[in-house]
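Private note to self, pasted from the team thread so I don't lose it. Backbone tokens:
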């Protein structure tokens, strides 16, 4: 990583760097959707990232290698001319995913993970797993073939407070799962709590078995953002933003230099009309300005020197893929985010729409 300084006397303060060059990052948790939405959001991701783990929660979900192959081809067909971008595909785990599908996935070379959505936990999770014990044979096949399980870590028990569902998931699901499948590779996706950060940090399984992604919005905002002066649907996602102590713990984890924590935007576009709605969809759109948001979070923590590991190294290391040999540069410069972006008939409102951001991807 090379850094340049605007003032020679301030060489020790990362708060004064005027630019930052790092290996091209990847996004280890992304929603690209399909059709016109895919066409609208893909260029944003491609501008920022070299690869992305593409979530399978389409309607209907991507449950087979054949469906993943077709989806991958639609993504490649939607790429801007001349763009180099590698979609890393995932399968959506159901109660009935056959163990053979895992073996086919491993052989395909383009499926890099299998996603666990507890049924009912989040957007398009209705076909998700109702009871993990139904998936034992499939999880065994994943463990055998080294196929990572990517986990939306929230219980769906309606008697559990919404803000506690991640913490309770650790005890009720994550720990028993990892006890039963001790060699399974697991990514705890989009962690939002101090509890999850500590669980991942303190895990004593062999290195490379447990990782966690952290979004930019969970590093920058706490739950007050959803209610500031009125209800703000564009700050509503799942798992929902938590209180400040949790945000601080996530920043600590992301900037710790631990290879267990890596970048996953969870950029999740929804049409504006379905966000600004009596029952608005969960998901924040950040693909447009993800790196800039992460730079802001690391800069605020005085830890810009830790951004490259988190954004560009630890993800490929976990997935056993090569680190990128390309480089990107972030410049300290204010710019105003658009109020919305156009996706065919629909528009999408990015996080912090119409406001300024202090970093720009060159
Ligand atoms: N994060 C979200 O709030 N929404 C995601 C689903 C998910 O990642 O849980 C989506 O697909 O919209
Ligand atoms: Zn999720
Ligand atoms: Zn997601």
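Design output:
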């Amino acid at each position: 990583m090379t850094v340049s300084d605007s003032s020679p006397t301030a060489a020790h303060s990362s708060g004064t760097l005027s630019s930052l060059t790092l290996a091209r990052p990847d996004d280890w948790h992304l929603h690209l959707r399909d059709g016109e939405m895919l066409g609208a959001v893909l260029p944003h991701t491609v501008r920022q990232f070299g690869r992305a783990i593409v979530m399978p929660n389409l309607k209907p979900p991507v449950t087979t290698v054949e469906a993943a192959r077709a989806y991958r081809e639609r993504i490649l067909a939607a790429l801007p001319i001349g763009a180099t971008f590698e979609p890393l595909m995932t399968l959506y785990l159901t109660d009935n995913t056959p163990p053979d599908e895992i073996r086919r996935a491993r052989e395909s070379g383009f499926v890099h993970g299998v996603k666990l959505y507890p049924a009912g936990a989040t957007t398009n999770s209705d076909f998700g797993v109702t009871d993990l014990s139904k998936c034992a044979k499939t999880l065994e096949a994943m463990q055998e073939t080294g196929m990572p399980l990517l986990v939306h870590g929230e219980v769906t028990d309606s008697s559990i407070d919404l803000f506690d569902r991640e913490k309770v998931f650790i005890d009720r699901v994550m720990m028993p799962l990892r006890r039963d499948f001790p060699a399974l590779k697991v990514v705890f996706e989009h962690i939002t709590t101090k509890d999850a950060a500590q669980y991942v940090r303190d895990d004593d399984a062999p290195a490379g078995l447990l990782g966690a992604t952290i979004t930019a919005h969970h590093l920058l905002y706490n739950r007050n953002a959803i209610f500031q002066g009125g209800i703000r649907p564009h700050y509503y996602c799942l798992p929902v933003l938590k209180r400040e102590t949790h945000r601080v713990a996530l920043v600590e984890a992301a900037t710790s230099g631990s290879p267990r924590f890596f970048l996953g935007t969870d950029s999740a576009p929804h049409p504006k009309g379905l966000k600004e709605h009596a029952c608005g969809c969960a998901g924040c759109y950040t693909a447009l300005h993800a790196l800039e948001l992460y730079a802001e979070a690391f800069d605020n923590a005085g830890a810009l020197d830790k951004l490259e590991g988190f954004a560009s190294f630890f993800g490929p290391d976990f997935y056993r893929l090569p680190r990128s040999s390309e480089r990107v540069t972030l410049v300290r410069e204010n710019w105003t985010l658009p109020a919305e972006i156009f996706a065919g008939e629909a528009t999408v409102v990015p996080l912090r729409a119409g406001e300024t951001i202090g970093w720009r991807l060159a």
